[in-house]
Fold this sequence. Notes:
Elements: E1 4-8, E2 17-19, E3 23-24, H1 34-41, E4 46-50, H2 59-73, E5 80-83, H3 87-95, E6 102-104
Parallel strand pairs: 1-3, 1-4, 4-5
Antiparallel strand pairs: 2-6
Keywords: Membrane, Transmembrane, Transmembrane helix
InterPro entries: Rhodanese-like_dom (IPR001763), Rhodanese-like_dom_sf (IPR036873)
GO molecular function: protein tyrosine phosphatase activity
Amino acid sequence: MKDYIVVDVRRTDFEDASIAGCLNLPAHSFYPTLSTIVALLASVPLVIFHCNSCKPGGRGPRTAGWYQDACNAQGAGTSRAVVLEGGIKAWVEAFGEDANLTKKL
């Protein structure tokens, strides 16, 4: 079992660059499939959500909130949702040149 997983909730902008090993679950289809997502990820202690910049009210913070609320409601409260500060923009700025950490298409 992994200690954490990174969930990228971007849609078409996912194609520019992504965090190596992340799971792409676009925000536009996230809420309707939330119970399935919780079932898949509930055993992961830390679920890190991000979008392009993770501004308040953006896709990353919004989906992290939905996920955490659903985990709590379904008794999967040991899985904790957090948001990657600054989103993929900050990640690429810090780690964009490291092919082990950042996947560019």
